[in-house]
Specification:
With 118 residues, this protein is of the alpha+beta class. It has one helix spanning 2-19; strands at 33-39, 44-45, 48-51, 57-63, 72-75, 80-83, 89-94, 100-106, 113-117. The chain is globular, with a radius of gyration of 22 Å. Bound molecules: copper (II) ion. Copper (II) ion is lined by residues 69, 106-108, 110.
């Protein structure tokens, strides 16, 4: 009998916690702040963008030159690889979960860009 009461006492808080879980939002994905990034012959302008962990942010890349190799955008940690057609805006929305640096670069890892997460 004693062990049964103990089990119930342990089980109750677990049930209470489970009930507070929120369902995933079903509406459109929040895009948060939008930051325009130009992709030139030598890299990104700006090359560093600062944001807060847990906040969605949309980086809008636009390649403005045929020079250089910015036609491909790579964000290694997110497994993102996108073509950047000349003079077209390409939006990438990210919600970094923890502080740190989230690099972005060209297809050959030559450009240096980063989303700095605080
Ligand atoms: Cu390159």
């Amino acid at each position: 009998m004693r062990s049964l009461i103990l089990t119930l006492a342990l089980a109750l808080p677990l049930v209470a916690c489970g009930g507070e879980e929120e369902a995933a939002p079903s509406g459109p994905v929040a895009e948060g702040r939008r930051v325009a990034i130009e992709v030139g012959a030598d890299g990104y302008e700006p090359s560093r963008v600062t944001t807060q962990a847990g906040e969605p942010i949309t980086l809008v890349f636009q390649r403005i030159t045929e020079a250089g190799c910015g036609h491909e955008l790579v964000i290694p940690s997110e497994d993102i690889r996108r073509e950047l057609p000349l003079n077209e805006e390409v939006a990438v929305t990210l919600t970094p979960s923890e502080a740190g640096e989230l690099r972005f670069t060209c297809g050959m890892d030559m450009f240096d860009g980063a989303l700095v997460v605080e």
